[in-house]
Specification:
Layout: E1 19-23, H1 46-49, H2 56-63, E2 67-69, H3 80-88, E3 92-96, H4 100-104, H5 118-133, E4 144-151, H6 167-189, E5 197-202, H7 219-230, H8 243-250, E6 253-257, H9 261-269, H10 272-275, E7 281-286, H11 300-312, E8 317-322, E9 341-353, E10 356-365, H12 376-384, H13 406-413, H14 417-430, E11 433-435, H15 438-446, H16 456-464, E12 470-472, E13 477-480, H17 486-499, H18 515-530, H19 534-537, E14 544-547, H20 552-557
Helix pairs in contact: 5-6, 6-7, 9-11, 11-12, 14-15, 17-18
Keywords: Signal
Signal peptide: 1-16
Domain X8: 476-562
């Protein structure tokens, strides 16, 4: 019998906003195939999620999402840029540990250490804490909200966890020991401030060999895990940290499902509060593609409205992560039934990624399965109460991406004043200024649309006169553009140091920790010696920007950049 005694109140009882998440696994393939990695939080994947690429995080925000759920995780690579951009877009992040330490690492994977995952989890998470999860003050990054220790452990730790006696105990030992390893990594890092919540995401399978709740999907696995957290020694594990106390203060249950809302109510949520009265829960993958086969037929709008209403009226149900952002062409088969967006035929960027280069294609809205005339993004935007997307521009040049040139200007001027205003803001910021009145910026941009006959040179000349809707700084500097990716900045540094005789590329240790800070040091000093026109002399192929110290790029570069005390000169 299970021995866990549930406290009457848990320290993390829900008081947060409804989770309206999107599951993000944007494999950049249009056909079945394999990729070397699946960590999309890394800097190399910035052409997909960053503002100078496809801008996926901004797209999610426009759909109404407030959270993004991730899968792969290479702890050796930095995730700081992704977390920074998510925070800028007001998105929370649900990151997770990959399967590598559990079933793929050879030697030493968890399934070979009798499902004791302490060392594997500790070492992996300690690296995460060093590569972006923590700020310089040893606090958790403000965008990071949850960490998934393992996705669907009941299907792989071992694969017989729900069907063969002994399986639930092994599965529970793996999760408890991994949790203990995470706590050890946090202790080693001397973390300060608020801590994030932790979860293990179960499948929606029925655990027929679990001691309790063996007839209900996911609940049997959760009951087994709770008992193991209360009595780890009974599951063959001696914890180094107080996992029981940490469980009650930080744990959140989660599960994946493609069942419709009406099933979840009867099978799960009507039963959950009785057995877990103080532990919140969220659905980490939610999307039913069988609605058209139900009697009566249920539309996706109706199904989403029902599940969100369940969350809004519950003290424990936090919300859902809609599965998934992009069609999984690489998997094929029924997996292609899921996906808010497919991939179109307009090339956004090329993405060097772990020794391969992938084409990043534009997004193409998928048709809703059972709602004629509606697309998946429209349905989700309605459910999540989002501001919506300008769908007609998804597969056209972006004002955030085109070069600051006559060609770039012409492409955006044809799209209207709103889009041209975004382009004009980039020009202002690249000249060392900031926009202080969006209304006046839009009025200015309206004077330069295609029908006006005006040119890029005329726009730049007008901005260089420092109109009243702008503010320019005398302390601007040529620094790394944080909207570029690290590979792009690194290539620009290599070019600069290989093509500038007499220019020293010696960089102090404090400014050589990453490509961006190195670029701050080198670009700013090169411009001080050689630069005159920010647009022409502080570009480096899009890797640099002549930034005001009051902009994000300027603030980030303050420690390593040298300012340019001269008047603004532009030549176009």
């Amino acid at each position: 019998m299970l021995r866990a005694v549930l406290p009457l109140l848990c320290l993390h009882l829900v008081g947060a906003r409804l989770m309206k998440a999107i599951s993000y696994g944007p494999v950049p393939l249009k056909a079945a195939g394999r990729i070397p990695q699946d960590d999309w939080m890394v800097e190399a994947a910035k052409p997909m999620w960053g503002p100078r690429g496809r801008d996926d995080l901004h797209v999610m925000k426009q759909l109404g999402a407030n959270t993004v759920r991730l899968y792969g995780n290479n702890p050796n690579q930095s995730h700081e840029g992704f977390l920074d951009e998510a925070h800028r877009q007001e998105l929370k992040v649900v990151a997770g540990m990959s399967d590598f330490p559990y079933i793929q690492m050879d030697p030493g994977r968890c399934i070979e250490t009798d499902y004791d995952c302490f060392n594997q989890s500790r070492d992996s998470y300690a690296l995460n804490l060093k590569t972006g999860f923590l700020t310089e003050y040893q606090e958790y990054h403000p965008a990071l909200a949850y960490f998934i220790l393992i996705n669907e452990p009941d299907l792989k730790m071992p694969s017989t966890s729900t069907t063969v006696a002994g399986g639930p105990e092994q599965m529970a030992r793996a999760v408890v020991s991994a949790f203990d390893g995470l706590l050890e990594a946090e202790k080693m890092a001397n973390i300060t401030g608020d801590l994030i919540n932790i979860t293990a995401t179960f499948s929606y399978a029925v655990c027929i060999v679990c001691e309790e709740l063996s007839y209900l999907p996911a609940l049997g696995q959760m009951a087994t895990l709770v008992d193991a957290m209360m009595n780890p020694e009974s599951y063959g594990y001696e914890p180094r940290n107080n996992v029981t106390e940490a469980f009650w203060s930080r744990w959140t249950h989660s599960f994946n499902t493609n069942n419709p809302a009406r099933d979840l109510k009867a099978q799960f949520f009507d039963r959950y509060p009785e057995h877990f009265p103080s532990t919140p829960v969220f659905v980490a993958e939610y999307h039913s593609v069988i609605l058209q086969y139900l009697t009566p037929v249920v539309t996706l709008q109706e199904d989403l409205a029902e599940v969100i209403d369940m969350a809004n009226t519950s003290d424990l149900f936090l919300g859902i992560s809609f599965f998934q952002y992009q069609v999984a062409y690489w998997k094929g088969g029924t997996e292609m039934d899921f996906g808010i967006f497919g991939l179109g035929n307009f090339l956004i960027a090329e993405m060097p990624y772990y020794g391969h280069t992938y084409d990043i294609w534009c997004l193409e809205p998928q048709v809703s399965h059972n709602t004629p005339g509606s697309t998946m993004p429209q349905v989700l935007t309605e459910a999540y109460d989002g501001p919506g997307l300008e769908y007609e521009y998804l597969c056209q040049p972006s004002p955030n991406v085109v070069p600051l040139s006559q060609d770039g200007f012409a492409a955006i001027a044809a799209q209207g004043a709103g889009r041209l205003g975004v382009f004009a803001r980039r020009v202002v910021e690249h000249l060392g200024g900031m926009v202080v009145s969006t209304t006046e910026l839009e009025a200015f941009a309206a004077q330069y649309v295609t029908d006006s006959g005006r040119t890029f040179a005329e726009m730049v000349s007008a901005i260089a006169q420092k109109p009243p809707w702008t503010s320019f700084s005398a302390q601007a500097a040529c620094v790394s553009d944080r909207a570029a990716d690290a590979g792009q900045v690194g290539a620009a540094i290599a070019w600069l140091c290989g093509h500038t005789p007499g220019f020293s590329c010696d960089v102090p240790d404090d400014c050589s920790q990453d490509a961006f800070s190195t670029g701050d040091w080198l670009f700013s000093r090169w411009y001080l010696r050689n630069g005159h026109d920010p647009l022409q002399d502080c570009s480096f192929g899009g890797a640099a920007i002549f930034a005001s110290p009051d902009t994000p790029a300027g603030r980030a570069a303050a420690a390593c950049a040298v300012v340019v005390p001269r008047r603004l000169e532009v030549m176009v």
